[in-house]
Every structure is written in C-alpha cells, then in structure tokens.
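Input set for joint prediction.
Command: fold jointly, output tokens.
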Amino acid sequence: MKKKRDMLLAAGILLIALGIPPLTNDYIVQVGTEMAMYAALAGGWNLIGGLTGYPSFGNVAFFGLGAMLAGALSVNSHWPYWLAAAAAVLGTGIFALLLGLPLLRLKGHYFSIATLALAQATLAVVTNTKFLGAGMGMSLPIVGSPAVFYYAMLAIAVLSALITYLLIHSEYGNTLLAIKSDEVAAQAIGINTVLAKSSAFALSGVLGAMAGVVYALWQSYIDPPTVFEPSITVLMLVMTMMGGAGTVAGPVLGAVLIGILTQLAMEVSQNASSLVLGLGIIAVVLFLPKGILGFRRPGKGGKRRGQSNFPLRG
Amino acid sequence: MHLWLQVLVNGILQGGILGISALAFSLQWGVMNLINLAHGSFQVLAAYLAVLILQHLGLDPLLAVPLIFLVFFAWGYLVQFFLINRVITSNLFMTLLLTFGMDFVLANLMILFFTADFKSINTPYANSSWQWFGLQFPIVRTLALLFLIVLSVLLWLFLEYSRPGRAIRATSMGMEPARLMGLKIPHVYALTFALSSGLAAIGGVFFGLSNAFSPASGGPLTVGAFVVTILGGAGTSWGPLAGGLILGVLDAVGSVVFGPTYVNVITFGLLLIILVLRPNGVLGRAG
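tokens >
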C-alpha cells in the first residue's frame, strides 16, 4: 500500500504546483519556474549521478549547449522556435551519447574532473564559434507570459521525475543499479555496460537541454558565461544529494528546499545566498550523507575506496 | 627564431607557478586519494594574505613566505583533522562534494572581505625582468621555477628519509597495513593536508605576485593543478615539475599560434584527450 500512498502524494503535489499561477502572484510564479527548472535539471543529473553512480560535474554543458543551439538556430537561421528547440535537444542528446562513450570509461575522480573539463571545453568552443554568437549574447523575441514558462518548466520537471520512476521500475534501471554496485560483476553477467551508461548520460543530456531551450526563451537573452555557469552543475548535484540520490522524489525535494533557502538568503544579499549554498553543501556532506530520503537500496553511492590509486614514488 | 625562444622561456617559467601548485595537489591526491576542489581558493587566499602582510606589516611577500606557509600549514591541519577526515573513508564523491562546498564558502567569504575586484601585489620587482642572452626572464616567474625545483627536492628528501615522511608514504601504500603498524592515520592525513596546504599557499603567493587575481581566480587554478598532476602523475615528487613545464610550454606556444582565447580550449582539450587515452592517468595503473 506504500505505492498507492506515494502516488496520492505525487498527485497532491502536482495539483498544488498546477494551482500556483492562478492563485498567486508573478513573483512566486517566477520563483516556481526556477524551482521547476532545477527539479528537471537535478532529475536529469540523478539519472547518471544517482542511479548509475557516475557523479558528473559537467552537466551544465547540456543545459548551456541546448540553450545556445536553440537560440542560434532561431535567431541566426530563422527557424521557428519549436523546430530549433527540437533540433537543439536532439543535437545535445547525440553530443552527450558520443562523449559518454569515452568519458564513461573513466572511474571515480577521473570521470568527475573529465566532465568538469568537458563543461569548460564546451564553453570555450561555443565562445569561439561564430554561428553560436562567438561569445556575444543573443536576444530572442519576447513571447508568452510567466505562467506559460512556469507550466513548460513544470512539464519538463514532471517528465524528468516520470522517466526516473519508470527507469527505477524497469530492467534498464536494474542494469544501471548493477553498474553502480559493481561494474565488473555487471559486465561479467553479460550486461553491455558501455551502452547502458552512455544512454543514461544521453538521457541526462536530453533533460538538461530541454530545460535549456525553455530557459533561453524565458529569459529572452542568453550569453555563454550565464548558461555555462558552473554553479548550475553544483546546484543539480547538491539538490539531488540533499533530497536523496537515486530516488524519484529526492531531486524535486532538494530543488524546492534549496530554492526556498536561496530566496530567503537573497533577502539579505546575493553574496549571502552563495555563502549559504556553500555551507549547505558542507552540512549535507557531514550530517546528511544519504540525503533526506536516503538511498533507495542499501549499498553504496559510488566506487569503493580502499587504498589510494597511486603509491607515493620517489 | 628569437620570438620562439622567448615564447619557450615564458612557457617554461610559467611552468614554475603551475608546478608548485601541482606539488600540493598531487601530494593530497597521491596519499589520500583526495581531490581538493578548494585548492585554487586556498591559493588565492594566500595571495590575499600576502597583500595584507605587505600593507599592514610592510613585509615583502617573498620574505613573508615562511610565515604564510606556517599559517596555511596550521589551517590545513585543522581542516583535514576536523572536516575532511570525517568523510575521507566514505565514497570518493563525498570528499569531492565537501571540498566543492569549502571552495564556495571560501570564494564568497573572499568576495565579502576583499570585494570581487581584481587585485595585484605591488612590489618594485613585480614587473621587472632579468636580461640573459638577449631574452627576458621575469624575476617573479624565474624565482618561482627555482622555488619549485628546491621544493621538489625538499619534499622528496622529507618523504624519503624523515620519519613523518615515511609514515605518509606507508599510509599512501595502504591505510590498513599502516594502521596495523601503529600509525595514527588521522594525524598522518592531517599532516599531509597541512603540508600540501602550505605548499599551495607558496604557489599562491607566486601566482599573486605575477598575475592580477580576484576571488574567482581559484577555479582555473584548481583545474590547472589537476591537468599538471595528470600529466606528471599523482603522488610523485618530480611529476609536478615535468607536468608544469609541459603545460606551461603548450599554453605559451598555443596562445601564440591560435590566439589567447584558445588557451582554455587547449588546456581542457588536452585534459580530455589524456583522460580518454589513459583512463587511469598517465602513470596510473588499472584500478
């Protein structure tokens, strides 16, 4: 009966979320749009970082690439926005899939830092590409209303949670969990780990790009440093860790809690909100290492650490 | 020809600052399997400390190096003992996340105290150079390279022959056996982190003397140290020297050939390529 209760709870939360635009003001809708965006992004991060156990430090690359591609295709190539958005999401997904193949061979620290470098390299390439604005910002036409963007982001957040739910309850999800628990053993029983990991990475990229293309139109002005801001990745992983990595509701819970905390700290100053975020990260690590909801299954959230990889040599 | 020789010299000298920074980074990584994402912020903080000492005590940053080393040694010991040790035996991701959080806090505290503006340390020799064989040798960078060589030798001697150095090496080979031999691992780890914080701070002073810096300069410094460590191999005494020279020269040549906006593409592209070709690091083994 636990499942039925969960479903009711999810439906209740969704109902409240749907009611926000007609019942509250523009400020709350704005904050809500941001929360929904981060719930979607954190949900995407959770697929690779939480379920598969590959903590990516570069997921902002997908968000940024999605936003810049959609912007460039609609502004420079005059495509209708829906087509530009679809192409950007598809392109980013392929980009993630292809890069996932070599990157996901890396273990532990190496994967994390390689993804960090991936985000920086993508930013550097975008900044040097003429079609993508050569580092200059892009102005998109102003369309829609706050409520439209709120519902769009909410839809992506729901999609993100739904994908996670379906994954966890599928064979594919078990494959990912097997990779997280013991990749060598997973390989030994015949799982194509490369394909499984890369497709999870691509899915994560697709969700990031979807949030990115909506963000671009919502803000109507984008430039590379903003959409490739490393702290966006930090937020994704902190929210997921705080709520509970590998769970369906964890990223959503984390996004809402951090969103509220950030708003409260913003009342004091912009700087204070970043400081609170930093202290929050440290607190989560020290006091809530398994997140509020805990890991779904017993086991560990990453690679085993025994002795160090490198003996100290003279 | 002359231009290229000068570019080569610039690259080699840049390698000095990169190398000192990597000496610290590589020690933590090699011994504790710890990637310290707050590394760059430690260095920037040391540069600010040098500014404060110069302003309030009138002490030249180069003469203040021992003092700054000691301050960061103590600070590093406390950070490791009370903070990082608490998660160092859980999974790798936790230590990454913890140091990420520390980096955020430090960077924002620095903005609070020193503003987000760029600063530089004003010394009479900051922009002057020695002239040898018709080539320019900026004083600060040349000294940094000499420091790197001396520090590499000292670190090697310390790890090879001193008692605490042996304890650090024993722990890096295996925590459990070291513990069974009676070593107090938390203190060995704290000592390691203290030592590398002190080294990072020395690198930070040199960085501050030769570059304008702001609280946001930490991120690129961390990534630079990472690339150099990967190039040279973590946990080796000479790797940072070799890696620093390679990256310094590549960056210098790259920015002349492709233009300065491509330096990041080179650094990160190189990092990605090395990682993909050698998934366990250049000198790493399967693991």
